[in-house]
Every structure is written in structure tokens, then in C-alpha cells.
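Session log. Operator J.P. requested a structure for one protein chain; no other inputs attached. Running the standard single-chain path with C-alpha cell output.
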Amino acid sequence: MNAIVYPYCKAAAPFISGIKENFNVDELYVCAPPVLAPEGSDAGFIDNTFTRNISVINEWKEYIDSCQLLIVPYVEEGIVLNEQVEEIILYAIENDIDVIDLFNAYNCEYEEKASGKVEYRSRDYYDNLNQGRGLQTDRPYMIKQPTIYVGKSNSPIVNEYAVEEIAKSVNEKGYVATEIYANPNAVLCGKICIPMNIVAGLQKGDYTYVVSLKEFVDNLSMNGEHDVFIIQCIGGATKYSNIIPDAYGIPTYLMSMAVMPDCFVMCTPALEMYDDNFVDYFSKEFYKKYNFGVDAIITTNVFLDTITTVVLKKLTTLFVDSEYSLSLVSKLKENGNKLVYSQFDKKDMDLLAEKLINKLSE
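Structure written below.
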């Protein structure tokens, strides 16, 4: 089977390799706007991370007729492609190409336009992935499993890779680590995701979804084998400035009201300021707000573009080379820093997993 992903974007990048495996795709085409990734570039170009060995295309019309499946992923805020997405979905429907749509997962208009002979999956596909685990409504709200939160200092920081890498290292040590993502595109890899309505509600600061998240995680804890949950946090955990508050960390705070983590790992931009004194101070200040501290910092390859952020009054990021992130962490360790890790270094992730397991075993 051949499949095409449109629009390919930063929010879909962490899961693109898993999509190919999950759907047993022979040929996967990823179509991105030229401004995000040029024709012929590797799919990893879009966030400058891992090589995927999947080439990017910029025009879907040349390839879609050879495909049997169209995947329309959830896209990050700020990408406005409504008309283009509607065009490709309707083209697929008219040509009997199956559609999985997370872009409009709660838009019934597209479902009404889908013909009966075409398999159109949006909301039902998303919501049903977590079915079959049962619902335990008669037990107290208490999570059995230890929980690790993987947060991020600000909302544009990518923390999906950290969730995956920590889980891999924990699993390799003989434990069963269950990943729970806030990014809806993770379902395309068959992974567990927080339901979209809960994510959207917490992003808006709606405290009524705290109980919903608690119930969701509680249900998972009662079904299946889980030694530890590793949960991707929603939004940034800290404000950027008084002018650009970045939601004041409210989504992460509401998550902590639903499920209090045993460990908290913070993903941050690539900066050279993370000495032990800074991390200690940051963790103490963090504790005052959340009632838990920061156990470790993962330096990503995301760099906050301060000048553009100030001019536009909106958080703007650049992706530096992963080698830069590795060299930065190496320099910090040479200066005696023991709390900063790199998601691009397998040994680092193994050391972090060991540290987290030791804390959970105390």
C-alpha cells in the first residue's frame, strides 16, 4: 500500500517513521509546503533532528493517484491551510482513496461529504484507539503506577522525542514504560494519546477537564501492564515574559492537579546557561508553583529566536543542528553539570532513565 501525508509539519515529524511501520506502507510520500521543507529534502529537515530516509515533496497532485491512503495530520498552531486541506480530502474521496483526518477530527462537515464506499476516519478513528481498556468508575482517584512528566519550558519546544527516548531506555532496563502523548499525531503510530477534547480544554485553561484527564489516566492504570507512565505535558511550563505569557504554564499546572508526577523532566532550548546553581534555583522556584521540582533538564535542538519573538510578540523558534545540542551538553558536563542531558545521546538517555528509576524506587 502507498500512502501520502499532507500537510507534513513539525507536529507530525516525530511520528513519521512510525506511521510507515504502523500502516505497513510500501511507499510513503510526505508533502510539505516549500516554506517548511524544500522538495527532495529528508523528512528530518523540518525539525533538523533525525534522518528519516523519507524524501519530502511539495506538490501532492503528482503522487496521490498512486496512493490508497491519505493521512491528514494534526498541525501546530499558526499553520493555516484550510482550503488546501479541503481540496485534497475531497479529491481523495472522489477517487476512492481512504482518508484518516486529524486536521478536522471534530468537523462533521467532512464526514457528511464522504461517500459510503470510502473509508473516512477522523474523530472515531482517534477516539476508538484507546477503546477496549475498560472503564473503572467505582474506584478512588488514585494512580497505581509511578508517573514521569516530560514537560517543556515554553510551548514551541519539542518534547515528543524525549518521551520516546526515555521510554526506550526504561524498557531496556526491564520495565514496562507506557508513553502517553498530548500530540494527536501519535495515534497514527498506534500510541496512546490524551483525547483531543481534553487537550484542547486544558490548553484553554479549562479546569473542568482536570477530572477528565484523571479518569483517562486512571482507566489506563487499571488495564494492561504498566510499570511507569511517561506523559507528554501540554504547553509550556513557564511564562516567557509579561508581554508574551505563553499561557503562564496553566495547562501543565492543570495536568499536575489531575495526576501528580513522581518525576519531572524539563525540555529546554539549546542554551549555555544551565549550570547546577541555575538548575537548583529554577527547580526551587518551580516547586513553589507546582509543588514538585525539576529532576532533570533535556537540552533540545530548538533555539528561541529572541529578536523575532520580541518584534512579533509571539514565541518564534529556530532548529539548530543536533550536533550543536550534543556539544553544548558535553561542554556543560565538562564544567561539572550533572543535571542536563541530551536527547540525541543514547548513553545520556540511559543515565537519565537510571536516575529516574532510582528515584521511583526510593
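Operator note: Confidence is low (pLDDT under 50) at residues 129-142.
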